[in-house]
Amino acid sequence: MRRYYVLNTSSGPLVTSIDGLALWPLGIPAPLVWVIVAFITNFIPNIGFVLGVIRPAILALVIGSPPTLFVVIGVCRVVNVVLQVLVQPRFVSDTVDIILTPIFLPVAFWSFIIEPLGAILAMPLILLGRALLLENEPELRWSRLLSGDQV
């Protein structure tokens, strides 16, 4: 779990810095504040991006125009998709020694079961389940493969 949070902490400044650099030329006030808010919300999987971009987007609409709003949302969305959806899961799978697919499946499963809280707790829940059920049973090689463990 510690490695997972270290990875999120180390990738967060890159994502949020790019977002802040995009807000600055658009004239959005206090881009550093929005960078800090985006960094904090970066720890919430799936919905953290939305929580981090709502305030600067509304501010872009108030001080700018609807096109400025769409530019803020578009730039932040592209950065989020590229870095947090396409790149970061690969590093997460290498860091916690699981295959990439089980990172997405628990998010979908737990989101269905306990809604937004499930999306936030999906990764800790799969790591806890794997540790409790499989770490002490080396003869359960088939079940370790199903859990996404890189045997």
Describe the structure in your own words:
With 151 residues, the protein is mainly α. Helix content is 79%, strand content 0%. The protein has 6 helices and no strands. The longest helix is centred in the C-terminal third of the chain and has 34 residues, at 101-134. The radius of gyration is 18 Å and the shape is elongated. The mean pLDDT is 75.
Order of helices and strands: HHHHHH
Assembly category = single chain
Per the principal axes of the C-alpha atoms, what is the gross shape?
elongated
Unreliable stretches, pLDDT < 50, 5 or more residues? none
Rg to the nearest angstrom?
18 Å
Residue share in β-strands: under 5%
Spatial gap, N to C terminus: 19 Å
**What's the average pLDDT?**
75
Largest sheet: none
Q: How many DSSP-defined strands? A: 0
Q: How many separate helices? A: 6
Structural category is mainly alpha
Q: What is the helical fraction, as a range of percent?
A: over 70%
Write the topology of this structure:
Layout: H1 2-23, H2 31-41, H3 48-63, H4 66-95, H5 101-134, H6 141-146
Helix pairs in contact: 1-2, 1-4, 2-3, 3-4
